[in-house]
Each structure stands twice: as C-alpha cells, then as structure tokens.
Amino acid sequence: MMSKKTMTGLLGLLLAGHTLLAQQGSVFTNGFARIATKEKSWYINTAGEKVFDKIESSFPPVDSISNEHIFSSNTHSMMIVRNNGKYGLVDDRGKWVLKPEYDKLELQNNIYLNLYKQGKMTYADTWGKLLLPLQFEKVGILDDHRFDVKQQGKWGIYDATQGKLVIPAIYDEFDYCGGCGLKSDYVYAKKGGKWGIVSSSGEVLIPFAFEHKHSMMRSDEWVCSFTQQGKEVVVNIPLKKVYAAPTYSQMEVIGEGVLKAKKNGRFGLINVKGEQVLDFIYDNIEDPYGSYASGPYLTVTKGGKTGIVTASGKVVVAPSLDEDVICSDDYIIAAHDGMYNIYDSTGKPLLQQNYNGIELMSSSGNIPLFALKRQALYGFVNLSNGKVVTPAFHEVGMVTYGKDKGLVQVSYQGQSGLYKPDGTLLLPPKYRGYQLLSDTLLTFNTATGTGLFNTRAQQEIIPAKFKYIDPLAPDSTLLSVTAVTAAGEDVFGLYSLTGKELIPPVYTSLLPMNKDQYLVMKDNGNAVYSLSTGKMTPLPYSSVAPAHVPDLLIVSDGKNSFLWNVAKGKVVSKPYPMVKRYEGDTTLSPSIPEFAFGVAPVQQNGKMGAINSRGEEVLPFIYDGASMLKQGVILLIRKSGENWKYGYADTTGKLLVPLDYDYNADGYPYDYDDSEYLSLFKLSDGLSRTHSLSYKKGLADRSGKVVIPPLYNEVFIGNKNSGFVTKTEQTVTVLDASGKAITAEKFTAVMLDRLASPYSEGITLTYPLLCRKGEGYVYLLADGKTLPLRITDVTSFNNEATW
Amino acid sequence: MKRSLLVTPSLLLLTAAAFAQTPVTAGYLDRFEGDYARVLVNGQQQLLHRSGKLLIDKIEAIGDFRITAAVKNGAYGAVNNKGAVIAPFKYDAVRILADQNKEHPEDNYCLVLVKLQGKFGAVDSLGNVLCQPEYSAIDIISPRVFAIKKNGLYGWCDMKTGKVIQEPVYEEVSASYVREKALEIRSKGKAGIALEDGTVLVPPQYERFIGWNFDGELFSYYTANGKCGLMSKQGKVLSPAIYDDIKQGPSEDLVAVTVQGKTGLLQAADGKLKVPLQYTKAACLGPLFQVWKGNLTGILDSSGKEVIPVVNTEIKLYDAAGHSIYGALPNPVRYTPPYYCVVKKGNTAALFSESGKQIMPFDYTEIGVLPDRDKVFVIPMKGRQCGLADFSGKLRVPVQFDGVAIQYAMQGYDDDAAGDEKDHFIGVMKGGRIGLFNMTTGQLVIPAKYTDIRWQNPYMLCLKQNDSTCLADKTGKIIRALEQYGSFDAVSANLIVERNYKMEPATTLLINKQGKVLYQNKNWNFSASSYNRLLVPELSKTRPLQFNSGLLKVRGDGRENQFVDTTGALVVFDEYKYVGDFWNGLALAAKEERQFGIINRDKKVVYPLVLDDMSPLGDDLLLAKQGDKRGLLRKDGTVFLPLEYENITQLYDTTFYVVTRQGKQGVLNAEGKELIPAAYDEIRYYKTLQLFEVAKDGKKGWLAIDGKAIIAPVYDDMEQNQDWDSNSLFPLLVKQGEWYFYLDEQGKELPYRSKKRKGYDE
C-alpha cells in the first residue's frame, strides 16, 4: 500500500473555489463525469457524450425485505437524474435503467420508485423494474402484486401477475387492512356513497349499504369497521349476515375470530359459521392472552367468578375461578380463593399443591416453565416432565445470554445457583458467581477464590483457592490455574478436568509446545513438562524463549544460542554466539530472534544470514543486514564503505532481487514493506545518501521481476491490478498493470477521487482518467487516446459541492 | 410452625436490646444505602436496618413513611422506619398502600396489606392489626376509609381503627367526586351515594353522577335513558331528569341546561328556567356566563342578565392583574377582581367592564393585556401600530407606535439609571427608531428617530443615531446637538463631560447644561463605565459614572489623585498617590504602592493606609490583605474582622466565613463570632444538613451548626449513607483502628462490627 502522505503529493487535490473557467470537468465516478461551464453543467459518459443534466439523488437499491426490515445493497447504488427537465434512473455502471422521460421520479419509503408521466403514474422497484404499466391516474399498493388503480376517476384493482384489472375501475374509493398480518382476498369498496365488500375477482360479497371508518380493520370473515345509519353492526362476509343493534350490542371479534356480543344484557359467542357457540348468559367474555399473544381459550365471567371456554364454546372450567386468569398457550394459570394452580385443556389442575403465585417464566422459549411462589420463596415447574423444584429461593430466572443461556439461575441471600430447565440441579445457591465450562463442569467463586465444580457428581473438585481457573485453550481438556504468591505475583499451573494437579501453580509462565509438552518458567529455572510421562525435564539454559514454531525453543547458555527441539529433547542447530545489542552493551543477548514464515535472520560473527526451524542455514552469513518483511520475503543488505546495497530473498534462501539497489539507512521500514510489490530504490548520482528524495523508486513483483524500473520520485500503485502512476519532478506517467506506459504523453498530474472511498487506503485506476496536461486537462482512455473534450479546470462530481 | 414464626421478630428485638453492649462480629459490613446496609452475619448476606435492631434477607419494596415490605425466613413481613416489625414474617405477600402528602398532611394514610392463603388483611404503620386476612381484596378509597371485598361484594372500613363501617353488600364502591367524604356505591348495576360514615345519601338508582367541584352545592345525576337533572349535596333532587346536559354556572344560583341543542339557565333553588332555552351554548367565564348563538357570543352576569349582547365574535376575560381567565373561577379564587372583557366584533376590538360598561370603543383592531410584575398594560392596537392604556380606558400613549418598551426591555432603550422617572417615561418605537414618551404629560418628548436612548442619570439622556450622538434632558430639550462620533456623558443633574475632537489636540471638557466650559484637560481619559467600584453597592455597579460627594475623578496626566468639583475647580489629593472614585464620601486611597486604605472627602484617613490589596467579599465586605494576613472591612471603613487570618473565604451560599489561623481552619458566623475554633485541617459544610465535616490530624468527624461535635474527629475513615434522597449521612460506616462499625446521628454505635468492609464483587 502506498502511504497517504505520498498520495497527497502525487494526486491533484479536488478543490473548488476556482473562478469558473471555460469548461471544468470532474473525475469519472461510476461511469460519469460532470462538465461545468459558467452557465450550466451536465454529465458525460465514458464516451464523452452528454447523458443528463443533474443528479437529483442517489440511493442503494433493495436486496431483500424481511420482517419489515429493509436490507439495502452495500455494493450497488442508483441515481435519479434529470435531463431536459425529465427524470430518469441510471445504475452505478453508467447504464440507463429508466430513460429520462418521466415528469417526476421519487423514492418512496426507500423501497419503491414513484414514476409520473403525462398525468399517469406507476411504481418501480428500486432496481428500476416497473411493477405495473404506466396507464393509471393514481396507483396504491395493496400487496406484492395487486394495486388499487384509478382510471377515469374511478377505482379498480390491477393484478400484475395477470397483467389486467381484476376488479373493474367502477368504484369511488377502496380501503383494506394494510396492517393485518393476513392479507384479505377482498377489498372494502365504496359505490354510490355507501360501502360494501368486493372480492378480488370483482364479485360483490357485501352490498353497498354501510358507512365505514378506517378503524378496527380486519382481513378475515368479519367486518367491524362498518356502521349502518349510525348504528353498530358487524358483518359476516361468507354468510352475508349483518349483526346489528338493538338485538346485539358491544360487539367485538375476539380470540381466534369469534364474535362476542351482548344480547338481552348478557354476553355470548357466535362463530364464523353464524352458530351461537356460547349462550348469552355471561357478564363478560374476554381474551386472556392480551394484545400480543393468542391462544385457544377465552375467559367468561358470571356472578363474580371466572371460567374458561374454547372458541368453539366448550366449557373447560365453569365460572368458579378468581378474576385474574392468565393463559399461556394451552396452559391456564388461575386461582381459587387466591391460591393458584395451572390447569390443562381439560380443566384438570396440573400441580399437586396450590401456590400463592404462579407465572410463566420469561424467555423460556418452547419449554413450559413456570415460576412457583410459596410465601416469599420461588421455585419452578417444568410441565413437560412434571418436575417441581420446590420454592426455596429469593429469585429464579431464565438466563438469557452467555454460556449458561437457557439454564435457570436461582439465588438466595445474594448467592447464585443453577438448574437445568428439566429441574436437574447443577450448582446449589452457595456461590458468589460461577462460569460454565462444559455440560458437567463450572468454575465457582467464593470469598476465598475460584474453584471447580462437577455438576454431575455435585462436588467441588478443585477447592476455591485460585485467582482464576480457565481452559488452557478453547477446546483443551486442561485447565490453567492462576494463584497469587505472597509477593502478589501471578503464578500459573495446570490441572486436569478431573481436578488433578498436573503442574503445580508456581510458574511465572506456562506455554504449550505441542500436545504433550509444556514449557514452564520461573525465576530459578525453566523446564519442559510432559503430560504423558508426567516427567519434568529441566532445561540447562540460562535463557529460554519460544521460537513461535511448534516444538521449537530458542535457548542460550550465556555464550551461544541454539535451537532446541522439545519433542526430540535436543539441540537442532549450530551454536550461534550471543551478541551485544548495541555498542557498549554490557550484556549478551540471544542471537536468534523469533521465527516468522519459518525462518529467522540470525547474526554470526558480525554478519547476518538466516536459518530455518530445522536449524539449516538458508542464507549464508555474508550479509550486513537481514530482516524479515511483512510480505514474507527477506530484505538483505550489504555494506561496502558508504555504499549500502540491498536485495530480496525468499524464505528458502533463493535470491529474488539481486543486491543491486541502494539502501537508505535513514529511511523507514515501510518504504520496503508497504505493498505486495518489492520496492526498488536507486540513488541518483551525486545526491545525499541520507535524503529520501535522493532515491529513485521502482517496483519488482514478488518473483523479483522488475515491473517499474527505479527511475521515479514516486510510484502510485492502483488497486486491483489497475496499473500504476509514476512521477518524476516534471511529469506523471500512467502505466498499465504490466508496467507499460499507456501513452507516450506526459502529464503533470492525475486527478483521482480519493473522497469516493475515504476509508480505503488505495484507489483503483479507472478510465477515462482526468490528467493534467500543460494548462489544461484531458480525459485519458485505457488505450492511450483521450476524449475530445477541452477541460480547463477541475470541478467536483456532485452539483452541490461547494469546495 | 406458625406460632414460632410469629414470635421470632419480637425475640430478635429482645436479643438486640439485651446485648446492645456486645456487638456482633460480622464477616463484613457495607456502607448504608438508605435504610439498609449489606452485612455478612453467620456466613449469610443480610440487610441491616438503620435502627441496628433488625436483619432481613431481602427488600421487596420501600413505601411512603419508609415502610419496608421485606423478606425473612422465606416469608414476607413489614418493617417501619424505626426498625420495628409491624407485620410478622409469615405472609405470602405484603403491599404498602400509603400517601405522604406534605401539603395536606390531613390526607396522609398508611395501610400495609398482608396476604395469607389468598386472603388479604391489613395492619397500620405501628403494627396494629386493622383487619385479619379474610378478604379477597382490599383497596384504598380515601385517606379515611378502605374498601373490603368478600364473596364478590364490597364494603368499607375505617382507616384508623379498621372497624367495618359497611359490610360488603355492594357490587362496587369507589370515591365519589360529587362531594367530600362520599362514596359512589353500586347495586344491581345502578349508582348511589353514601357518606364515608355509612349513611346512604342517594340509594343506588341512577346511572351515574357528575360532580362539578368539591365546594359547590350542586351536581348532576343521570338516568338510564341518558337524561340528567340537578341534585344538591344533601342528595335532594332539585330538578327532574329532563335535560340532555347540565353545566356548572359561575354561581350556585344558576346552571346551564341543554335540551335538544338549546341552552338556557336554570334556577337551582326551585328548578325553574330563569333564562329560556335560547342559546346554542353557555359556559362559565370567570364570574360570568359566556353564551353563544351560533358563531356570535355575549356575556350574561351571574344573575342571568345579558350585560354584553350576543353580537360579538370573540370575548376574552382578564382580571385586574392582567391574567387571562378561561372557564370557571378556581377555588380558592387566585384572581384579582374586578374583571375586564376584551370583546371582538369581526376586526374591531373594545374593552368592557364585567358589568358590561364599555370602557374603550370598538376603535381598535386588537386590544392586548400584558401583566408586567406589579403593573398591567392595556395595549390597544390599530393594525401594526400600538399604544398604551390602563383599565380606566385612558390612553397613556396614543396608538401611533410600532412598539413600546414594556415587559421585555426594548433593544436600544435603557432606563436603568432613570431612577423614579421610570414610572413617567417609556421608550417608543417607530420604523425601527426609538423615541421617548412622557406618559404623565401625554407628550412625545423625544421623537422616534434614534437608534439608541440611554438614561445617564434621572435628568439627562444620551441619544444615538448610528455613529452620531447627542444629549437631551428629560423634557426632550437637546443640550448638546447631534454630532458624529460625539462623546457626551451626563455626570450630574446639570454637568456634562464632553470629549471635544474638534479641538487641537482633542480635549475632555466639563461643561454645564448651558455649554459653559468649567474645566478642561487634554489628558483626561473619561469613561462612564470604567471606575473603581469597590465601595459601590451591587445595584449601582452598572450605572454610568457620576459626580459623587461633589467630586469626579480626572483620570489622566499619569496621576491618580486629582478630581474636579462641581464648579470645575481641580481638587488634588496631594497627600496620596492614588485616590479611587468617591462613594458616600469615602474613597480608596494609597500613599505608596501596595499601601491601601480608605479616606474621606476631607482627606482624612478612615482606615489606615497599610493594606497590600483589597477585594470584594460579598456585597457588604472587603477582604483586606496585608502580607500573609487577611481581615475583613465593612464598606464604611470599619473593621469587621481584624488582620489576623491567613485566609478568609465565605462558604458558598451562606453567611459563614471559613478562617485559617496558623494553618488550621475554623468557622465564624455572619456577625464574625466564632462557631468553630480554628483547629481543623479541613472543614466542609453541608448546607441541607446544616452539618460541618471536619478533619484533624488525619481523623474525621462531624460538627453541628453550633460547632458542637456530633461525631468527634477520631475516625480513620468514614463513609456516608449513599441514599442522597433522604438527606441523611447516617448511619455512617466508620473505621477506627482495625474495626469497621456504624454510627447513627446521635453518634451511637450500632451493634455490629467487622474487620472487613464489603468488597465490590461480594
């Protein structure tokens, strides 16, 4: 990657505030560029042709809609544009989706486009696809494919799948329940000043004889929004029957679609078939599920007592219960004289004892879990297995997040315990806190520390004496334990899941080397512990460090450093004498650094080479500098007097770029590793070695092949293999991906729209490319030609931009 | 089992009392958060009540009067603010129904509901059983009675004694809003009214009642067929139920009744129509009836007489203080009679008295009424022009101006320095320019042609027209003509300081109204806004500089001790190097650098010139500094506190002074008397609690406002109660040596201690 700093120097800034010169041009964005003169501006396509005048707005098209949530495209955008006063739509590849021939084109609710033309309107989706032909005066959206449309002043219904009017345009007005979950196959229609119901095939289901208000709207067999001469009515559509005052009053469709009504002062129920399913003998009938749930039961009250009935009129419990009844799916929580039980669909109590409170446990999902209360204590019951956990806790609740999600947490006097929803005890409520490790293991906290608990055996298998107990790795069968020494220092040990101590917690560091062996370290010595043998093998070295290669340690004995293979239990490299880190250093440090890409550059006798993890020399010790770069290649430096030459080798030791290039000892590391290419620098004759501007830059690819010879002050690398821009003091050259100049023309700057993606580090070179040439600008094409446009200055892409 | 549970709380109280001397050693103690603190006792985390008498397991709720519904031994009980168990821990539920109404303590009540085996009972805040758990529901009706429900029917009980006043026989009982201490009772679906004492006032035979206000004598009752009639507070039917609607009138004598959309007035006493059904609508408007016939409106007085005919389009009512009145008068009446009506007829407006006397003619397009502190302005308007009048109808300012400077200051008009003249003069605006109107004489004394008018004293005004300035007296007479960049400042009733730029060099002059130059000095740097205000009281600090004590300081010439008197004679205070501006005959003075004191007009020393510096402390005192000593002077130069302290600060928003002597802090009161001797390292005052927190030698304590120690400063650490609402610091969690324990507001220890404070994760 090119640093931002470099880019600024190379690219012209997109500034405004210029006085308008003859003709300004913007960089190309999504296939268009804006051309502006003092009087007007317009947009051109990549062929240089004028395509439209103005961008009205841009928006992301909709990929999908789910549960009312709109998922807009992250990768595409559409633009509403205006040309000669007419509106059209273009996509982000510069293609016309809707030609500019509309009087108005606007985005509605981010999901539709409203299109107007010559007194007609229609809708399109956000990709520009028309949902119905442009032939109606007004259009409303009923559902995915049906539209209420106005034709010659009257309304009908157009079905887009059939491509025709399914209800002729002969009505004054339509209404329908947009918010109903179930879509109706009829509409409310007005004709001759009165409302009725018309089926989606155009058949009049209910004649036009009612007044209507858009409230209590339904989409099923019942109509509750009508009145007749001001009187309350409910209409049953299939039966074409009208229930009306004074016979019926206080009518309401409740539960799963039955009509509750009052007749002779009492309430009863009538079903969709018009059958009286419940006699008119009750003081009231209600839906016990509330507004946001539903279920099979209704409650009836009579003489101050409550009963339960089904929508078909079956009496589950005769009115004998207390007033407050709560139903959850098929279960009924109700009380006799203030004492609660749960009743099933036959009216049978499911609990052997009554409780002074019962409620559905929240977040219990599909499991019928109910909290039970006796005096101030809570327990719970799982009705799928009938298991009752007797009330003994100050709180019970379903855990809703974390590893123990779905378990039941109980607490008593501030201490927590845990149950499975099936009623199995996992952890008694004796602990300050806990953390689930597996189905059977959890760590717990007490005032003395952290321990390990086996839920199956119901046993503390590691007492609460550690600061932390954590799995060694996510899938490990071993536990790292942390203890604190008297001096307050953390020390580490290893335990098995059965609670057995494998490595005592006395080590300042504990690192797995492979599946069996662990490097343990403490102040007075380091060792390797084998799980399989239980043997601790001391390492006779003063300094030990992980090499970041499996099995491999870098060890030093005070004089030399070696590679130590833990599995083999032996040294696998030559000795490399330890080194001073800087002039005047009084201590010796290991000469082998950490490995990267399987290789480590190593110092020996004042020279640098490289070894691999087997201890083999991959680069001979003949270099004055060697350093692993982020790309996974090794930068090699050789010094000869004041001359520093550098090249690159791969991790096998193969020289990719010979040491022919000039190294800037005062430069920055990112000069060499900030792109996938290999940077090539050559010092200009006679210039200072320490000044970065003295170096000419080029690039080689990863195989070492020179793509751009080192002739330039700066090289800009286009993203996605889109080519290069090079710069010398005077000129800028545009090159293709192979490094070949696109044209022999020389420019002084290339304008790139960095603001198009402010968070991206790089820019893809796209053509036409706005290049500065002399006092003016040209649009350069990929074939080296230019668009026949004379541009005198740069302007912004958007019309409104002021800077 | 039940028996033992019942006696447990009392046993526990005994235990706590008997062994108060030997504290319980707890696993840990936490600071108090309100009435409770978390403590670990016998290995169990419990909550200790602030009384120190009681441990509970869990707080269910804390209600008014700080009654706690609490959990202990797995059951619910209730605890009062003294820590006494008022409902033993044996219940299935406890609910606190209480209201603590500070403004109406007579409406306070506290009912603690207890539930056992599905049945409700009640106890009071002292633990007296009001009723046993035998009811299916209990509910508050009023501060005096509560409802009981049995077998689906309701009765009620006395709140204080629990005595059943009415056995449960009604389908519903609820508070009635037709009169005080009444209940609405329902039987067979019909409503009646009973008094709280059980007397049935109206047997249940009506659909509903609508009360108008508690103090009124009347209300309406409705029958099943939707008609209504009038009833008295004693339950007497005053009119048959033949009306569609009845509305309260401004007095008890008349009410508005409606039949088929026509409204008339009914005499309450005999139920007869006093005003026939001739209006489309009638409503209370303060002490009057506003009536309508279609879109036209008028006013009837409380006897039903049409005092403003029904020919107007809009009527607004104001009281004598200028407040708008909508609807009926509140009880008690918050308004100031008499009342006035602004009446609009189409685009014209007039002012009427409440008796219908026309005060201002229909000559205006609008009449506004604006109260402004103790004054009311009546603002007649014609189109966009306004004037000023009063409720007598007299025009004080003719309707000629775009604006008058009332209520909110008019930008560009400043009468801050006008003194009593403010009552006579008002700024007026026309076409964006300001003038001055004398409301007493009815004359426009300064035409509205200035951009800025500022009174400089009660005699003269500085007028500006953009960058030109002139000076006028309050009769409008121009004293100094308009001059570009002119600089004029009135410095007394008839003296003016003028910077004359036409003179060469520019010179500052003292002149009289007649223009006679009394004194001149080219080096005089006069500015009316920059002068020494140390002796000036707060209210006068923003006023322009004036002659005071017959002198005006002449700044300039590199001298700080010269003044002119009102004759223009130079008065030099040679004895002093610096003399500040005079106020009440006194001025700040210095002989040498950093040797300040106070002198009088006769050049005599009032406070010796020995101070390094002086600065204001509050509005009345000056902080005097000499070396590292501080003292306080009054503005008359007398000593309030001698120069004996290292530091003196005033406690914010109090009249206490914190003084430091020999590195130790103490507190003096407003009179300078010592409240707390200067013996503490740090003193902080808690104003709402009226307590001082003090620290001494690393130990902390608390002192009362009289300086007496509540908690002697002997504790290493101290944590206040975290409940900021209750405004109490106590009980404090303190540490002394290795022990933590609690201290209450008397400084007494609670009977628990521990060597550990509860950690945050425990």
TrEMBL record, chain A:
Name of the protein described by the UniProt record: WG repeat-containing protein
PANTHER family in the cross-refs: DUF3298 DOMAIN-CONTAINING PROTEIN (PTHR37841:SF1), GLR2918 PROTEIN (PTHR37841)
Keywords on record: Signal
Organism (species): Chitinophaga qingshengii
Signal peptide extent: 1-22
TrEMBL record, chain B:
Chaperone as UniProt keyword: no
Keyword Glycoprotein: no
A Pfam family recorded for this sequence: WG_beta_rep
Protein name per its UniProtKB record: WG repeat-containing protein
Keywords: Signal
Protein species of origin: Chitinophaga qingshengii
Annotated signal sequence range: 1-20
Residues that span the membrane, as ranges: none
Domain of life: Bacteria
PANTHER family with a match to the protein in the record: DUF3298 DOMAIN-CONTAINING PROTEIN (PTHR37841:SF1), GLR2918 PROTEIN (PTHR37841)
